[in-house]
Design a protein that fits this description.
binds alpha-D-ribofuranose, Inosine-uridine Nucleoside N-ribohydrolase, Chain A, 9-stranded mixed sheet, binds calcium ion
């Protein structure tokens, strides 16, 4: 069973990813990063998710701002708190530390072969890799949700996690780690719609009810902001790529991050040209650095996620 560290910025899809990781993997620890909402809010949301789904894992708060860019959040989609929609219980515990980056360094140095699953901006991961260049080769891999080989969401070409901290994403993609990418071109194959909401709500229990209300709020906001009552359940895809690799097909490609473009900053440039010089070099000899997730077995992924929520949603929480 894969032993997993999740770095997140809950958000409803982060919450589902945490439940999925706890159910199908060995969730070793959780770190949080400012993203969907400010650090204090996403840290509370991660703790609430653990409380609602009986996930007995420490949560360590990490970076509250990107490496160089100003902080950027998504209140128009996730609400100011990041968990808009349901009424939420009082927190029963706080974060184990506010040293999420040190926690990542110490934990990855203490155990070889962990999977690191970043599902928010990559700031914590970049800071850890910069401070401890030995980390990438100690990991089994980095399976991140971010970027896109096609369209963006928060700009025409940039996906939110990479857009918030493009410099951090560039550090991670150049780290030499085994990297798996769950970009929007993959995660939009995991459709969020009112049908998924109904299936989650049918599960029952406090946890499932909270998730269904978070997703309804997300759909309401997306419909209002983008005129489309539909989205992708993004973050669980990065977890399933580790716990159920048969669910996602990957291809080794060259991926770079645009840092300076007026209209394209934060874009992940995924080289999908057919030619390649060798198994490890792309069309122009560039080293291939990312296993790009391109096809999702949606039916299986959807069942796995619903089963994980059902297994851990408790009426008494
Ligand atoms: O663009 C989707 C990503 O941004 C997801 O991780 C979601 O939680 C938000 O962080
Ligand atoms: Ca996220």
């Amino acid at each position: 069973m894969a032993r997993i560290l999740v770095d997140c910025d809950p958000g409803h899809d982060d919450a589902v990813a945490l439940v999925t990781a706890a159910h199908y993997g060995e969730l070793v620890g959780i770190t949080t990063v400012g993203g969907n909402a400010p650090l204090a809010d996403v840290t509370s949301n991660a703790l609430l998710t653990c409380q609602l789904f009986d996930i007995q894992v420490d949560v360590h708060a990490g970076a509250d701002r990107p490496l160089v860019a100003p902080p950027r959040h998504a209140p128009e989609i996730h609400g100011v708190s990041g968990f808009a929609g349901p009424s939420l219980p009082a927190l029963e515990r706080g974060p184990a530390s506010s040293d999420g980056v040190d926690y990542l360094i110490d934990t990855i140095r203490s155990e070889e072969g962990l999977w690191l699953v970043p599902i928010g901006p990559l700031t914590n991961v970049a800071l850890a890799f910069r401070q401890a260049p030995d980390l990438p080769r100690r990991l089994a891999g980095v399976s991140f949700m971010g970027g896109s080989a096609t369209i963006g969401n928060h700009t025409p070409v940039a996906e939110f996690n990479v857009l918030v901290d493009p410099e951090a994403a560039a550090v991670v993609l150049a780290s030499g780690a085994h990297i798996q990418m769950a970009g929007l071109d993959l995660t939009h194959q995991f459709v969020i719609d009112d049908g998924l909401v109904a299936d989650i709500a049918t599960i029952g229990g406090t946890g499932a009810t909270v998730i269904s209300e978070l997703v309804v709020s997300y759909l309401d906001q997306v419909e209002q902001v983008r005129g489309l009552r539909k989205g992708g359940l993004h973050d669980p895809c990065a977890v399933l790529a580790v716990t159920h690799p048969e669910v996602i097909r990957h291809r080794l490609r060259r991926v770079d991050v645009e840092l300076t473009g007026t209209f394209t900053r934060g874009m992940t440039v995924v080289d999908r040209r057919p030619g390649r010089v060798s198994d490890t070099e792309g069309a122009d000899g560039q080293p291939l650095n990312v296993h790009h997730g391109h096809t999702l077995d949606h039916e299986t992924a959807r069942r796995l996620v619903l089963d994980a929520i059902a297994a851990r949603s408790r009426a008494d929480r």
